[in-house]
Write a structure and sequence with these properties.
The complex is a heterodimer. By secondary structure, chain A is an alpha+beta fold. Chain A has 28 helices and 29 strands. In chain A, the strands form 6 sheets. In chain A, strands 17-29-28-27-18-25-26 form a 7-stranded mixed β-sheet, sandwiched between helices. Chain A has a 6-stranded antiparallel β-sheet with strand order 9-8-10-16-11-14, with no helix packed on it. A 6-stranded antiparallel β-sheet of chain A has the order 19-24-23-22-21-20, sandwiched between helices. Chain B has one domain (2-42). Helices cover 60% and strands 0% of the residues of chain B. The radius of gyration of chain B is 20 Å and the shape is elongated. The chains are: A alpha+beta, B mainly alpha. The A-B interface holds A 45, 48, 52, 108-110, 112-113, 117, 120-121, 123, 125, 127, 130-134, 175, 179, 182-183, 186-187, 190-191, 194, 197-198, 211, 214, 217-218, 221, 224-225, 228 and B 1, 4-5, 8-9, 11-12, 15, 18-19, 22-23, 26-27, 31-36, 39-40, 42-45, 48, 50-52.
Chain lengths: 817, 53
Amino acid sequence: MSDSCFHCGLPVPADADYPVRYREHTHRACCAGCQAVAHSIIESGLGDYYQHRQQQAGKVQALPEEWLERLKLYDQSDVQASFVRQENSEDSNADIREAALILEGITCAACIWLNEQHLKRLDGVLSVEINYSSHRARVRWDNRRLVLSDILQAISAIGYRAHPYDSERQEQLAQKNRKSAINRLWVAGLSMMQVMMYAVPVYIAQDGEIAFEYLWLLHWASFALTLPVVVYSAWPFYQGTWRDLKAKRVGMDTPVSIAVLVTFIASSYALLSRTEHGIYFDSVSMFVFLLLGGRYLEGMARRRAGAATESLVKLVPAFAHRLPEWPQPHSQETTVASLRIDDVVLVKAGETIPVDGIIVQGHSRLNEALLTGESQAIARQEGEAVIAGTLNLDSPLCIRTTHTGQNTRLAAIVRLLDHALAEKPRLAVLADRFAAWFISVLLVVAVLTFVWWWQRDAEQALWITVAVLVVSCPCALSLATPAALAAATGTLAQRGILIARGHTLETLPQITDVVFDKTGTLTYGTPQVLSQYLFSPDNDAIHRLVAGLEAQSEHPLAKALLQHVGAVEAATFLEVTNRVGSGLEGYSAEGDCLRLGTLSYISELCGPMPNTAWDAPAHATVVALGSQLQGWLAVYALGDEVRDDAAPMLQQLQQQGLQLHLLSGDRQSAVAALAEQLGISTWHAEATPERKLDYVAQLQQQQKRVLMVGDGVNDAPVLAKADVSLAMGNGTDVARASADMILPGEQLTALPAALHLARQTRQIVRQNLWWAVGYNLLALPLAVSGYLTPWLASLGMACSSLLVVGNALRLLQRKPR
Amino acid sequence: MESLYLLIPLSIVLVFVIGVIFWWATRSGQFDDLEGPGHRILLDDDDQPSTRK
């Protein structure tokens, strides 16, 4: 019907034949995985999903056997301990459990519906609840009828992935904070509405129109309702002030606390001493409500950004194959946490090494890019040390554990990161500096007013001073920044940049230098087929052979080749063997011997490579396909490619007058080539995490403000150290946790846009602050001279607050279509 | 006008009652997911067999 896959929406290859029957029409799917998922969705009567979904599903990849095997480990009680709750019930036979899961692949509300319906139909599942905002699921099931791995498997059968996550740790704290924020807002809001109702009749009535006793009844009622606001809702402001006082500085919370407490205490005194013109309970509750509202909106935007980093909470008990009776090859699946020093583990090709250790058997090439940024593989053999977190590329290794957990090199980098985060330079926030200045002027004016009136009209002095404090109430001032930040954060989230820390938007406009990492940041970070040359015109036949040979391989180059040939029907091979460092050899059904690997490996089989006009691009790895009967068939050049949008992004940044740096752990030649290609004049190669840190520190000493963009574990300390940092969405967890901004869609062009918006935000914050000052310059003299009535003061305060919020809302921009 | 002596305290009590209701709503998780239920009502098919009671 159409040329895009029925399930995932990706283009369907011309020769793919995976029909899907849905509501009297036949649609096409792009691969067997998508077809299987579509069938299982439609067959279980959940076809409505395709009607309701708003976004295409992700492409489904068939799951490796081993993965399913590992799911079984989740059935063990000790693995379940941290994320499964066992219910106590009177029936001793029942074994009801509840697990917290996090779902990957949710794109719209229909996905939630599909997962819920699908799981509810499993025999033994008692209830499923999925939270659309956080993608978290709670599943209750009866452990006698089915086990957790069945549930996880059912989820992967319809194309999603579920990970257990530790609900106790972070989630609960965040949830508690959120709930108390909502409660405080409710209390302030309810009280504000009701107190206003008591206050308005007092304002509009002429003198003596309301009988004396009723007037005081209204005031007492206001007092009763304002008390919870002052005691409960405004509590976070007092805490903030206390923190600031202990640190001997003045922040935004200080004037707020002073205004709330002084106004409330003076009003209460007026109430007790029956002084009619000293009662401002309505101002107190409205002020607190507006401020809490602004904070709540800001917090909501930040939580959305936090959701991107939530996968950190993911509790993936990393798995390892332990060899308990080494050198006997019998292996046993265990969790990495249970490994002890001197245990021997088997690491297969394509797996990540779980511990620091020494190779006791085997030799292979390792990719340490995660730790060093070096993209080329390094050969390691018996007796040499390996580091946890590196990827084993070629062949199985047996490793004797020397360090586990907190003692590994990986953990050391994480500690370096914590350290850097602690000493990150904090720019004094604009509004805070403003607050310090504002509050001193205000207090001086208040004291002078009191003294002046004391000498003239001692009875009036106190009430005029209170009026001064109320009218100058820093409402507009305290709303100026949070409102603008909330609006800008929302706009950026739509554009594909998530703000994770509060200071980011204020620091961004002051950036002078941008430092980029190479692998995974400016480049894709995974090998791609750069160019190919085919010795025979039959493209499809060759692609089928490549797909057949590489089908079982976990080598990154194999994955790149498989992606390159696309969804073709793989040729069948009788026997595929792997020669380490050279390539693969297999016998086709016709008895032909085929090899896929390095040029010299193919030359051994087919003789020297025929002369061609084809030239491999610089720094590319070249692999070839040859056959005993047909000779040379194809050559492929693979390498890490520069992201499509890297060049336009760098150009825009340069136009904005920023100095660009390239800092990579990769080899000199590779970095130089990239720097030249992208026109970056300052670059450094072979940089260790420590050197990167020094480099940024040096820039900072020269009074420069540094924005760091990176993705790897080795970038994490630098990301934390830089004034502002941006991590790629597919970067490592550590990198994302230490960054101030996250780029989930990996669209680099969003960065210049973010810088632009940050400048706009700063401008609007300034306008707001100036407005707040202007308003006070107008209102203060009136209050000081004793002309301002309470209702006029309240009205002025409300209007100026609304104006400030309205100005900030200009930062909300619709997504350009 | 004497009714005010009854009505104003009543309004205060009412506000506190509403406050408690909201407190209960937050506590029981009514505000946990503000987007999902809106979509769910469009999708749920009542005639679908379900193992849930």
